[in-house]
Design goal:
Length: 148
Amino acid sequence: MESSGSQSFCGTCLAFSRTRKGLVLIGEIALCVLVLVCYGASRTPGYTGLAICELVFAALVLLAWGCRLPPRLPILHWGWTDFIRCVIGCLLFLITSLIVIIGHRDGAGIAAAVFGLLAGILLGYDAYITLPTRQGHTAAPTESPDGA
């Protein structure tokens, strides 16, 4: 009985990883790892914190959506949470990458900044596809259940 439950869990996670959102999250994780490695090898390792935070957040979102946690936990608005994560990550990656490209001259730092620009663009695209108003949410009823 446990093997079928674990197969359905793995099947659910694999099925989500094949969707557009799943592929974008996997791309974000891969770019964050590349940025982390390049910043770690450069003369400016102080910028690794952004890559670590975005890597952890993207992995948690991938795990949550892969496990179909949002329908089970409706207390948190998952669409807006993911949208805000993407917008903040996009802006921070773009700003940090531009600072490093303009001010630093080591090869690993420039490579990290280029990967950071790509991560910022991918996070911007992720914000666009997860914008909750594009998904057609309906308004919650404002009347009391008894009709008064």
